[in-house]
Design a protein that fits this description.
The chain is α+β, with helices and mostly antiparallel strands and about 750 residues long. It is built from 30 helices and 18 strands.
Length: about 750
Amino acid sequence: MKKGRKDVYLIQTLLFSLISASIIFGYFIFKSRGFFTVVDDFNFQQLPFATAVWNMIHSGDAGEWCWNIDLGSSFINTFSFYDLGSPFIWISLLAPRGVFPYLAGFLYIVKYVTAATTAYLYLRLFVDKRQWAVIGALLYAFSGYQTTNLEFFHFHDVVAIFPLLLWGLEMAMKDKKYRPVFVLTIFINCLLNYFFFVGEVIFLAIYYLVRYRKLPVRQFISGILTCILCGVLGVGMAAILFFPNILYVLGNSRGQNKLHLENLTYDSAGLLHIIKGILFPGESMREFSAVIRQRWSSTSAYLPFFGISLVIAYVRGKKKEWLSNLLWILGIISLFPLSESIFLLFSESNQRWWYMFVLVLALATTKVLENIEDYPVMKSSMLYVAMLSIFYFTIRFVKWNANGDSIVFDVKRFTLFYFIALAGPLLFCVLKKLNWNSYKNILVLTMCGCILTTALTLHFYRSACSNSVEGYKENFEAGLQLKTIDAQYRYNSVNNELMINGDAAGIGVFCTTVENSSRKFDALFGHYSSNRTQNKYDVPGLSELLAGKYEITREPGDKKILDTVVGREKTFYVTEKNACPIGFAVDFALTEEEFTAIPQEQKALTLMQAAIVDEDDFGDLNDAVIHAGEGSLDYEASVDELVAKAVANRVSEFHRDSHGFTCTASYDQNRLLYFTVPWSNGWIAKVDGFETKIINSGGMMALKIPAGEHQIVFTYHTPGFRVGSLVSAASVCIFMGFVFINKRKKRG
């Protein structure tokens, strides 16, 4: 292609991906009258989270602490995984408050078009006839991975941007002048999502070793050093988000190693699930049609229309290239949980990394389409058809235990996906036989495959929650209107769309990235979950302990109504109940070991009277609290009586904002204050302007206060954020200098 001439196939990629995505999402946007929902995580996390980020950014006083995520949580650590690094979310910040559900469908279209475009930029490097890169780009953008992850809105950000990373590497290896471009692609991917970026670095290392292993030794080593230096600079530029989140992950239960030698291989169901994910179109993770009923592991690498038929042709071709080796390596990795876990630093095994695998599959398919006569496409397509059929009929008719049970949970859906997968390669063989396999014909059929498989699974996702969509809209709109009534108290709710959209703050949340100390607190009550802190009602007094004073109801009865909000013509009433304030003085203290031994039904009642402290802290607290012994705590009193005592001992003039909270304390003797606010290294407490030690009280915070009247200020700064900001600023300056020097050399 001549220099300066427009790449018409890039324009085609934009156009055809836009048409395909618009048909898919436009239908559902129209059907839902603009208010776009999917199911589960999308509805209850993505929509409220994006709204919460909008609220925080537009508050005019943006800080680092978000009160309406759980009992309070770091704004940066909570939302970096979902929103903060996403350019697609940044677009939504330009819109009015509360309209994100009306933007989400259109943002999905933008993401799919971006994924196709970036994939095209990468794929065209390996073909002479660029029209086939258009096909490959569509296969990547509308792959089974994208389809099965439709409820994970933020996953599509990663898929859309990732091809730039490989494109940047290829360009930098081709010509030194592109090294700044490579740095930028590293920066963008790292800033976008720290979790996926770690896996991308591992993949990039494998890719480099396979792709460039035949280079001369000096050039090979030089390339490695280039990758490392560019990587350090790119990550440094993204350190503003990357540093604090790495510190956060190190203390997260999900970051702990969960794999052992017995996890070396999948069980029979797990292995069949992997094979099905490679052979069959992507399905709804909440209700697979066969093998495994439900699993949130992103298990699909299906390419629309073709499946892996042309990938098989590529690896069976006479000409063996680096790509064949990479396909074999990635294929073998995908079959074993221990090897798959390398993309998550051996913490767990899932198929979150398969979008990278899909791009390689799309590349192999593209190369076969360009030189179709050089590959055994007919035999390979028939082999793929045979593999599909053997799998389908085996799963469909073989009984898998002595009881004669089947592992097909939805026969119609499983059969439908079988015929869809089957139709592509068979139709392709017919076209090839009749010599009708032109670019235009293949393009039309590919687009049809993309639209069919994506729209079908999106339909299955949405149909799973169709009965609750109206109720969801009501909650979402009502949540936008809820206000803080008294900063000392929270709403007695764990409903995301009610508690996160507005100024309300609840007592639990469905979210993966809350403060690590919140999980520690939950564990004290026997609640273990990596993605939610909503179990607050099975322990007597727990919701009252956590300041859950305000209740939201449709039927207030004879209760006093404090406020009313309306969601889609449905009225919600805010009433109140007895609850402890967020901060109050306690008379007793006990160790975590002593607290653990207390019966479950008495644990919340205990914390209304006593704070958990380390054994080493008792010496400093003996003039403020009594070490709780047997019989010293009152379990005969009712919850209301204990709440009344906590209210009598509460702090005064409590005020909270995105920087922390302030209050005053006035007691006639030294006291220990207990705050149901998650502890973090990021908190600094000052009493009358002097910094005071914060006690980690079982995941919450406690503070010793001397007798008299005092002003207390708690200020939160996300650990690692300041250092990360400085590193980012310095790295950006270095990068600008790098670009300047690079341009001077180019001119010279």
